[in-house]
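Bit of a strange request maybe. I'm writing a small parser for structure token strings and I need a real example to test against, not something I typed by hand. Could someone generate the tokens for this chain?
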Amino acid sequence: MTFKATNATIKSYFNGSRRSPNIFWAIIISLGGLGFFLNGLSSFFELNICFPFHSGEIAFIPQGITMLFYGTLSLLLGTFLILTIYWNVGYGYNEYNKNQQEIKLYRKGFPGKNRELFFIFSFENVKSIKMRVQEGINPKRQLILCLLDSREIPLTGIEQPVTLNKFEEEAITLAKHLNVFLETE
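Reply from user aminoacidic:
Good idea to test on real output. This should exercise your parser:
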């Protein structure tokens, strides 16, 4: 998340799914799935389709059919990951404009009717900003916009957690900018 502040506007950006770990795993899963799929086909046709390996000698039942099944699943998962990266699911921004007294939230999703989500909230409808901090093996740090009608809208993405000091600083800056209370959970 990139956090930019001026006197009248605070804007934070989210990378979405176009991150190097996602690209790495999409490539690894796709290549591994392709290898398994070709080895499974080689054992079925009793040919050596995958040249560096002697997979034509593998019995189709049970090894070949298992490799074909897992190869197909891996190729489907790899395709899903590659499309998610291509569509950049999760990309977006939050804009807090003091002059217009409104909060704009924008996110990209999967293709379809709700591909782009765009919400506008007035400063008057904001009750507080909530900090949700969960430590442990998989730490989570999340900022939540609490509205007067008891709705809670997450403001942070699913990126790597930032340091606690930076997270608190962003929460305090945002609460001061919106002129609301800061809660912790």
